[in-house]
């Protein structure tokens, strides 16, 4: 990371302000494109601020959830060891979670699966467009 | 479409369109006054005047732009066949004028009459000139859909083989899996949909994408219904689920019928015009299904952007917008949204 100004946040703010300015003095497709560009700059800014912590939280939550499932064994269980779970990166864990949801392995513990997925979605919307969330989810 | 490259594409289309028009309407006709509708996501739409002597007629060229094995759209050939059937029943749609052929070298598509009016969703919900149209929309939609669903599906039997006619949920799951990206929220939603399917319903010819944004409104109400690329055979309740999903309300959340009015006006008009009794529990399932389907359409757009086939800033936004659709879906499953 550069020590020099402008830092990443300032660069993003500058480009976002430019895109908003273009939107304000244009019309039609150009205005729409400029609004989209400003929106994407905002997404990037929020992801830089929130993304790291969200990933850490989700990794911990998902490892806990899947580890609990591994301990249950039987048809609801996972064929993964604790070590394998610990070594998996977040995208791989999403895949494991999703496969198990689709195969009905959480039908008996639906609320746990739903709660994890809902929290992951709320995290994503906090990055994409926090105003889309109901007030009680904006600070959760 | 903008820039010199985009203009060259348009010039090429107009040149070929002029030849296509002369082939059908005689050597004297001219194609003039071209305008490109820029906000179409799945088709290229070009407006033009067909000039024959002193008469001038405004027409619309629709060309297919999405070409993917996971495309949710029926062929333009089938769309044109549908337009002829629906127009023949006297419903409010643009008059079909001619279908493109291979000799036109304009790819797949067709030409219909231009219907003057407004289509931009937010304008429809705010323009003071459309106040009366807004008040009438829910009831007019009920009447329109009742008349559409009364058409014998045998008249559009070619739609029976489309994936959405066979199993609409599986059709969306297949498309979703085709894009190869994992969304835990959608996975939970899919499982809920699989575990809570409504009972089999009467099979009707349905529009499949009837919503704010696919209708033309004038001051007195609906002037034409557009965008028949998702038409198929299915449950009438699917139509209501799509129409009432949260994304089409554009902030008017207390007006479930696409931000215009209450469900009661839609359902009453539907039943009063010969439609079947509305099953509100089934509509709820279809509304949650609609969010999944909308997420999959957004995946198509971001896939077009990422693959380089149709790069654009709005399509880039579609990728991130999926999270909001997932949120709406899970909130509806929780029972917190209606």
Task: Explain this structure.
The complex is a heterodimer of chains A (140) and B (338). The mean pLDDT of chain A is 91. In chain A, helix 1 (8-24) crosses helix 2, helix 2 (28-72) crosses helix 4 and helix 2 packs antiparallel against helix 5. In chain A, 74% of the residues lie in helices and 0% in strands. Chain A is mainly α and 140 residues long. Chain A has one domain. Chain A contains six helices and no strands. The radius of gyration of chain A is 20 Å and the shape is elongated. Chain A has helices at 8-24, 28-72, 82-87, 90-102, 110-128, 135-138. The two termini of chain A are 30 Å apart. Chain B is α+β, with helices and mostly antiparallel strands and 338 residues long. Chain B has two domains: 3-113, Phosphorylase Kinase, domain 1; 121-334, Aminoglycoside 3'-phosphotransferase, Chain: A, domain 2. Chain B is 46% helix and 15% strand. Chain B has helices spanning 3-25, 76-88, 121-126, 131-149, 163-166, 168-179, 184-195, 236-244, 263-272, 280-306, 313-334; strands at 30-37, 43-52, 55-64, 96-99, 109-113, 204-206, 215-218, 221-225, 232-234. The mean pLDDT of chain B is 94. The A-B interface holds A 28-30, 32-33, 36-37, 39-40, 43, 91, 94-95, 97-98, 101-102, 104, 106-107, 113-114, 116-118, 120-122, 124-125, 127-129, 132-134 and B 1-2, 38-39, 182-185, 187-188, 190-191, 195, 312-314, 316-317, 320-321, 323-324, 326-327, 330-331, 333-334, 336.
């Amino acid at each position: 990371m550069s020590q020099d100004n402008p830092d990443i946040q300032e660069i993003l703010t500058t480009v976002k302000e430019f895109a908003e300015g273009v939107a304000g003095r244009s019309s039609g497709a150009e205005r729409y494109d400029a609004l989209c560009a400003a929106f994407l700059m905002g997404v990037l800014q929020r992801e830089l601020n929130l993304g790291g912590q969200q990933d850490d939280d989700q990794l911990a939550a998902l490892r806990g959830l899947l580890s609990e499932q591994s301990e249950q064994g039987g048809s609801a269980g996972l064929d993964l060891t604790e070590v394998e779970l610990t070594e998996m990166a977040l995208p791989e864990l999403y895949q494991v979670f999703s496969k198990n949801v689709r195969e009905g392995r959480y039908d008996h513990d639906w609320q746990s699966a739903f709660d994890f997925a809902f929290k992951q979605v709320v995290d994503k919307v906090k990055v994409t467009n926090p105003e889309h969330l109901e007030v009680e989810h904006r600070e959760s | 479409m903008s820039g010199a490259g985009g203009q060259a594409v348009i010039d090429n289309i107009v040149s070929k369109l002029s030849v296509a028009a002369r082939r059908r309407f005689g050597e004297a006709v001219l194609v003039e006054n071209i305008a490109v509708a820029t906000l179409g996501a799945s088709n290229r739409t070009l407006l033009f005047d067909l000039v024959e002597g002193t008469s001038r007629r405004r027409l619309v060229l629709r060309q297919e732009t999405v070409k993917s094995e996971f495309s949710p759209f029926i062929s333009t050939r089938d769309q044109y066949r549908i337009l002829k059937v629906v127009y023949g029943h006297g419903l409010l749609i643009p008059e079909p004028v001619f279908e493109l052929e291979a000799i036109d070298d304009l790819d797949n598509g067709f030409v219909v009459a231009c219907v003057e009016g407004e289509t931009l969703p937010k304008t429809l919900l705010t323009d003071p000139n459309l106040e009366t149209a807004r008040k009438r929309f829910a009831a007019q939609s009920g009447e329109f859909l009742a008349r559409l669903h009364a058409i014998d599906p045998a008249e559009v039997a070619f739609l029976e083989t489309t994936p959405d006619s066979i199993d609409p949920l599986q059709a969306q799951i297949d498309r979703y899996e085709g894009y190869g990206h994992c969304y835990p929220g959608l996975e939970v939603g899919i499982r809920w949909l699989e575990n809570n399917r409504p009972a089999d319903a009467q099979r009707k010819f349905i529009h499949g994408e009837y919503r704010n944004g696919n209708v033309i409104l004038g001051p007195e109400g609906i002037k034409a219904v557009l965008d028949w690329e998702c038409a198929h055979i299915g449950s009438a309740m699917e139509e209501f689920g799509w129409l009432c999903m949260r994304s089409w309300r554009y902030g008017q959340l207390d007006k479930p019928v696409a931000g215009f009015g209450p469900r009661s006006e839609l359902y009453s008009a539907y039943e009063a015009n010969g439609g079947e009794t509305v099953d509100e529990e089934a509509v709820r399932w279809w509304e949650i299904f609609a969010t999944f389907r909308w997420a999959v359409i957004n995946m198509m757009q971001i896939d077009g952007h990422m693959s380089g086939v149709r790069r654009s800033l709005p399509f880039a936004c579609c990728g991130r917008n999926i999270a909001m659709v997932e949120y709406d879906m899970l909130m509806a499953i929780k029972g917190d949204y209606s």
